[in-house]
Amino acid sequence: MKSFRCTICGELFLGSKLPSHCPFCGVKAKYILNSEEVNGAEIFMIKNISDESRKSLIVALNKETSNASFYKCASDNGEKEEIRILFNRLAKIEREHANIIGKFLDLDAVEFTDQECSHYDSKNLEQALESTKEIVKFYKKASIEAREVKISNLFKALGEVEESCYKMLSSFGSPEIKKDEHAFVPPLYFRVRGK
Ligand SMILES: [Zn+2]
């Protein structure tokens, strides 16, 4: 067993090898390091966030919390089991993202308000694709605009996750589901408590 730390969400976890994505926030392997290489206490530490970046973080937080709640609803209302699983996974990822952003904003807790969704999977998939496309665009722009390296990196990493989510969602919309697109959820890794 080795121990790893995600440099974006800060989670520590054990595994026999480096996963392809963070099992918690979904970022690519390039953001994951052996735990001894990262000082966990410094991940969310940042001096003087500019007003512009703070604004972008708040917009990102609103998008992630509303997506998380929408996915939760779409999972609860899911007609097919695979759709319930898909939206449940996406809800968890978006929750993680919202919590990361909350840490940069120094929030004690992130609030999730209920969102409405359809009783039809097809409608929910359509809306999910639309909002994911929008958030990908937002993160690209926000990452370029952010002057703080950490914030720019955060937006870039989260934007990449949203792009994978977009791919995953669009594969459900097409008649032929490409199985490897769903290999997004890595095998079993264990969250290490009390970091
Ligand atoms: Zn992570």
Description:
There is one protein chain. This protein is an alpha+beta fold and 195 residues long. The protein has a single domain, classed as Ferritin. It is 51% helix and 7% strand. The protein contains four helices and four strands; from the N terminus they run E-E-E-H-H-H-H-E. It has helices spanning 51-76, 81-104, 121-145, 149-173, and strands at 2-6, 12-15, 32-34, 190-191. Strands 3-1-2-4 form a four-stranded antiparallel β-sheet, with no helix packed on it. A hairpin with a 5-residue loop joins strand 1 and strand 2 (12-15). Helix 1 (51-76) runs antiparallel to helix 3 (121-145) and helix 3 (121-145) packs antiparallel against helix 4 (149-173). It starts with a strand and ends with a strand. The model is unreliable at 176-183 and 185-190 (pLDDT under 50). It binds zinc ion. The site of zinc ion has 8 residues, from loops. Zinc ion binds next to loops.
